[in-house]
Backbone:
């Protein structure tokens, strides 16, 4: 991400993918700490992976999740399942999270740092 224009373009792309709660949702921490840790690249790679696999997934951004030492943070919520938080997510982890958790429903335990029961 090199400019504010690119960030705005990415924001519009994410907004286009936002929808209802009947499909998988991915939430990326985009607070200052997340961005400094590489969350923009992680968000872009998530969108690329979803597009490449033609998945129907809602992608949302949020502010600081208050676990700055674990940034970038990515949450995955499957319909009817607990919300799982993944920490220290790099672009090399995205495919594993998308395929393992979003597509196949299996938590990627080596990256998971929290579980929120809704």
Residues:
């Amino acid at each position: 991400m090199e400019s504010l224009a690119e960030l705005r373009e990415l924001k519009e792309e994410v907004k286009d993918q936002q929808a209802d709660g009947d499909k998988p949702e991915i939430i990326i921490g985009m607070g200052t700490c997340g961005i400094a840790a590489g969350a923009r690249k992680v968000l872009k790679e998530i969108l690329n992976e979803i597009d490449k696999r033609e998945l129907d997934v809602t992608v949302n951004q949020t502010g600081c999740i208050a676990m700055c030492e674990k940034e970038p943070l990515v949450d995955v919520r499957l319909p009817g399942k607990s919300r799982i938080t993944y920490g220290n997510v790099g672009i090399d982890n995205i495919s594993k999270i998308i395929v393992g958790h979003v597509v196949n429903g299996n938590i990627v335990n080596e990256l998971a740092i929290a579980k929120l029961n809704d």
Notes: The mean pLDDT is 90. Strands lie at 25-29, 58-62, 74-77, 83-86, 112-116. The chain has one domain: 23-116. Residues 23-116 form a domain with the Glutaredoxin fold (CATH 3.40.30.10).
